[in-house]
Recover the amino acids of this structure.
């Protein structure tokens, strides 16, 4: 289905990864791409292995679940980094740019162009999925904030009369500025 | 020409797309003004707590305000503060001078590893302070300024200090890799101390400090509240074991004073570990007491200033003296032990009114605590197990596949590596380690220590907790690990969240929860529930 893209898969993948990393400061991109140890460099190695899985799933048609798991591993990281929502999900679109860039010289051939367009539309679908996962990850972050407050709040409620700060009525345990 | 359709290449305006620049501007780190991102900073301290503690510049303000309402002579205050500390602390002066910028520490900080902001590289975090030091305290800086990386102290620089010194958990991981032993945690401590001189501090640190000063613990629990809490635990213990444990509080003449972080009074899963202590002491027949005044082992003074460490820590010896105990036993906590190990003796010692701790159970004398006279419970229990003083049935923990997180302070500041592992292996049949470069000296921080464990900075905590969470997930997938044990109260709270996000399905436990579940108590009823009131799963073929 994507013969031309398959022929150039390694270069496209590499270009995509470089593009993903170039959304970070230069030193960071270099550290994340260099260090292959998954525990010393969990972000770089996760991006690499999961981007590869996403790309392979697109080309070889893997289970949709597998593609989502790989996407999720990347998005969970980006959802808690200092990125905007668009930046977090935007890395998916970079795959189109990578493919177009690597295949540039072939695009005068209408067959190849069509293949790239078809591929691009697949990438768009992946981006939609990525958006869903990103939204879920952000929800998770907020759920965890609430859960943390509840973990202590439950016992607080039971014993609220014994907590000093509470009895003078000046602050309540749910005030976000307070210590739990 | 007709407008292109979405299935035509032209529609996508490739050239324009390619031109979008995803790369942030690469300005020199010394010039970028700091951008306060939500999820990365902590609410400032409330004026009433600063007033209560007599700290500088109480006022309502927000880091998002343009004007931080600094005192008029703020610059002189900082310079004077630096001068004083450079004279007082040799380590500070040394750390300011000797960094050769070799970069060995650069990629070792969990905040940098997970988030990628270069100013979270330890070397650059230190440079925030060092650049000012260089300009105003060194000859080269005075003469050639920028050439040697010196810069002027401006409100923008202060904002940067606030932003980045509260993105350091003072975990010391970076120092393990520095060939000169530079401890960036100490630089952060100094940075925060200077910020405090201007009233720039965070509520999640200052409110506990103020509570602790007033009631003896971070949470503000008063004596009757403490009693009620422990009674509440005793009820659960009775439900599980059929045994009524005693609750000695402020009992004069007891042999041992027990002090533990108050976090374990209030939040699961720390509460189960607190129950574990009570059961252990009952079983060993320990002559001990809690104190309602020294009801906090933790010391958020460590995240404020040296003076505050001393003020809060003083109550432990004061109570030991008032109650007339022989020695002090301390619970599972992280930074509490850094304070006890490194500062207590010089700040509030000598504790010559106490005796060198000797276990009444085994007769072991804890020579290592000959000076502070305070023993860590994990050494105490390891010694009891080693001498066969506890009957243990590890099969009660067979439902658990346990791994151990070395908490930064007991690991890097005290060298507690073997005792916790020995205890866990004695009470659990299934234990495995996380990868080598994530444990022991090289352990990764939970991302929420040193006063960062609140919720408004959750994104920061989660990206900082990623290296740890990633290693947990690895053993979860590889070995079916479902429980992460640790000996730190902050960890018990923050790692629960880290695991929920990065390795859902793994729960956090204190070691004494595991001990108490495995401990066969004299006169207990048949144990069918663990301390979480869940049915006990026993492995096959083990009774
Ligand atoms: S002490 Fe820990 S948090 Fe602070 S800079 Fe070093 S590694 Fe990072
Ligand atoms: S490892 Fe030590 S000497 Fe090297 S850059 Fe870091 S702090 Fe400086």
């Amino acid at each position: 289905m994507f013969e031309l893209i398959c022929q150039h898969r390694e270069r496209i993948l590499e270009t995509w990864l470089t593009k993903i990393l170039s959304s970070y400061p230069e030193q960071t991109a270099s550290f994340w791409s260099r260090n292959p140890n998954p525990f010393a460099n969990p972000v770089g190695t996760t991006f690499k292995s999961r981007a590869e899985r996403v790309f392979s799933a697109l080309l070889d048609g893997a289970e949709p679940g597998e593609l989502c798991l790989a996407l999720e591993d990347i998005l969970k990281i980006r959802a808690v980094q200092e990125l905007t929502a668009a930046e977090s999900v935007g890395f998916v679109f970079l795959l189109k740019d990578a493919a177009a860039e690597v295949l540039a010289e072939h695009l005068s051939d209408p067959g190849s162009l069509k293949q790239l367009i078809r591929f691009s539309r697949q990438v768009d679908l992946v981006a939609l999925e990525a958006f869903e996962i990103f939204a879920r990850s952000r929800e998770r972050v907020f759920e965890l904030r609430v859960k943390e407050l509840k973990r202590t709040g439950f016992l607080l409620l039971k014993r609220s009369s014994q907590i000093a700060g509470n009895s003078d009525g000046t602050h309540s345990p749910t005030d976000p500025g307070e210590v739990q | 020409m007709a407008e292109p359709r979405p299935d035509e290449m032209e529609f996508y305006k490739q050239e324009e797309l390619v031109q979008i620049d995803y790369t942030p501007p690469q300005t020199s780190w010394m010039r970028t003004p700091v951008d306060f991102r939500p999820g990365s900073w902590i609410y400032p301290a409330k004026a009433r707590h600063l007033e209560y503690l007599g700290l500088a510049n109480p006022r309502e303000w927000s880091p998002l305000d343009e004007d931080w309402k600094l005192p008029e002579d703020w610059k002189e205050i900082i310079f004077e503060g630096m001068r004083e500390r450079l004279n007082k602390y040799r380590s500070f002066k040394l750390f300011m001078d000797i960094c050769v910028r070799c970069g060995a520490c650069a990629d070792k900080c969990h905040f940098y590893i997970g988030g990628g902001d270069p100013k979270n590289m330890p070397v650059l975090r230190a440079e925030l302070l060092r650049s000012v030091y260089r300009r105003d305290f060194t000859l080269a800086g005075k003469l050639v300024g920028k050439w040697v990386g010196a810069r002027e102290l401006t409100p923008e620089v202060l904002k940067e200090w606030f932003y980045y010194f509260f993105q350091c958990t003072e975990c010391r991981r970076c120092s393990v890799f520095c060939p000169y032993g530079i401890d960036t945690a100490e630089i952060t401590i100094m940075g925060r101390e200077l910020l405090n001189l201007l009233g720039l501090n965070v509520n999640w640190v200052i409110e506990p400090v103020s509570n602790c000063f007033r009631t003896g613990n971070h949470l503000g629990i008063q004596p009757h509240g403490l009693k009620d809490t422990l009674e509440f635990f005793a009820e659960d213990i009775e439900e599980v074991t059929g045994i009524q444990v005693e609750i000695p509080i402020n009992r004069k003449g007891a042999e041992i004073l027990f002090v533990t972080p108050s976090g374990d009074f209030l939040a699961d899963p720390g509460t189960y570990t607190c129950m574990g202590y009570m059961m252990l002491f009952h079983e060993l027949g320990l002559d001990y007491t809690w104190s309602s005044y020294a009801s906090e082992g933790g010391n958020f003074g460590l995240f404020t200033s040296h003076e505050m460490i001393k003020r809060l820590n003083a109550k432990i010896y004061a109570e030991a003296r008032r109650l007339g105990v022989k020695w002090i036993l301390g619970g599972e906590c992280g930074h509490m032990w850094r304070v006890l190990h490194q500062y207590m003796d010089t700040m509030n010692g000598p504790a010559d009114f106490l005796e060198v701790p000797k276990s009444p159970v085994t007769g072991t004398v804890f020579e290592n605590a000959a000076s502070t006279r305070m023993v860590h419970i994990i050494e105490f229990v390891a010694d009891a197990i080693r001498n066969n003083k506890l009957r243990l049935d590890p099969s009660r923990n067979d439902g658990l596949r346990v791994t151990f997180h070395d908490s930064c302070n007991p690991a890097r500041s005290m060298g507690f590596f073997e005792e916790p592992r020995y205890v866990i292996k004695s009470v659990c049949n299934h234990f495995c380690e996380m990868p080598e470069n994530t444990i022991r000296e090289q352990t990764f921080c939970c991302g929420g220590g040193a006063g960062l464990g609140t919720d408004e900075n959750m994104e920061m905590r989660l990206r900082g907790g990623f290296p740890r969470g990633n290693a947990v997930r690895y053993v979860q997938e590889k070995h079916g690990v479902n429980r992460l044990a640790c000996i730190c109260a902050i960890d018990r709270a923050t790692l629960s969240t880290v695991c929920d996000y990065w390795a859902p399905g793994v729960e956090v436990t204190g070691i004494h929860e595991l001990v108490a579940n495995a401990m066969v108590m004299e006169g207990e009823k048949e144990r069918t529930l663990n301390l979480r009131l869940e049915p006990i799963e026993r492995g096959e073929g083990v009774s």
Q: What stands out?
A: The pocket of iron/sulfur cluster (ligand 1) is lined by residues B 108-109, 111, 122, 125, 168-174, 184-185, 188, 445 (CB under 6 Å).
